[in-house]
Task: structure prediction
Amino acid sequence: MHAEVAVTGLGLVTPAGHTAQANWAALCRGRSLARPDPELAGLPVDFSCRVTEFDAAAELGRSLARRADRFVHFALVAARRAVADARLDPASWAAERVGVVLGVGSNCLSTYVTEFGHLGAGRSERVSPLALPRSVPNMAAGEVAIDLGAQGPNFTTSSACASGATAIGVARDLLRSGTCDIVLAGGSESGRSRMTATCFTRMRALSRRRERPELASRPFDAARDGFVLGEGAAVLVLERLTHARARGAAAQALLRGYGAGSDARHPVAPDPTGAGAARAVRAALRDGACAARDVGLVNAHGTSTPLSDAAEAAALTSVFGDRVPPVTAAKGVIGHALGGAGAIQAAYTVLALRHALVPPVANFEAGDGEHRLDVVAARPRPVSASAGISCSFGFGGQNAVLLFSTA
Result:
């Protein structure tokens, strides 16, 4: 019998806000936060969903803000919020029993672009000595551990857009094995660099609705034409349920199951049959000893790209048949935070179970008719759900699915 794993704290920094409460309110309004982005001005796709009103120096202090990059800033603030939400005191925890596992899809290209510019101009002396420690992917987890004094296992998962979900699954294993008592798990990314936007544009992955960017991200809608770049972080405090109870902490939800696998088919395109994604869903249900009929909501990967949404819909109908639970997809509101997306979705799934409410999918008007999903649209839908799944898929055929239940 596996030890039960509880979620005892949440921290979020996204385009929807810097607290769990602000994020939940924005999700339930169901309106896209995509806007013209000054950093992308002049590019074929010049809009994004960005984190606003975020002052890293005010949150973290000038020294820490200067030495860390934006994706690290997000992770640090989200981790602090999560620890506070869990009512943990880093000064008194058993530091060697506290781990940190964060997912990052890639290092921050904006730093590299800036520093390569100096090098290309023959000004090597202008390359910052902080360039590498600012941008290597593991620095989000590293800086969180330094900031909070977490001396247990510390590493980064990188499985493209499934990175944040993978981190939470790996953290669960550290708790089940007895290696850690507490793990701060999640993901962070700031992918709004001009290079990233250009690369995805060249791949024809981004929506081109420049005239009405607020209508661009529309998961599962028949008129979807690509995703919208986003950014942000989420950190969950995970503990064995017995450990949480011993210190008098309340569980916000239980992390019941984790399923992962690979399409093993194509570097960027999903398997159109959704077979690999369906295997990951079934693996998560088996791991959590949960029947498909007991799942009350699906927090879908829902990128708003034609191929990915169709493959995910095929996977869900393969697992659930004609009784797919109500489906939501946060990227309609906050865009795609890449390596941070799976962790943000996981936090949102916990909130949905706590509130017994499924947020609507922004801009969803009509499905494409090929797969009949019960997509929640227009307004939040009350549900009586004791379990929900969060699906994350990424380049390389990466599939990761998390199963949460009410506490």
In short: Residues 70-85 form the longest helix (16 residues). The mean pLDDT is 95.
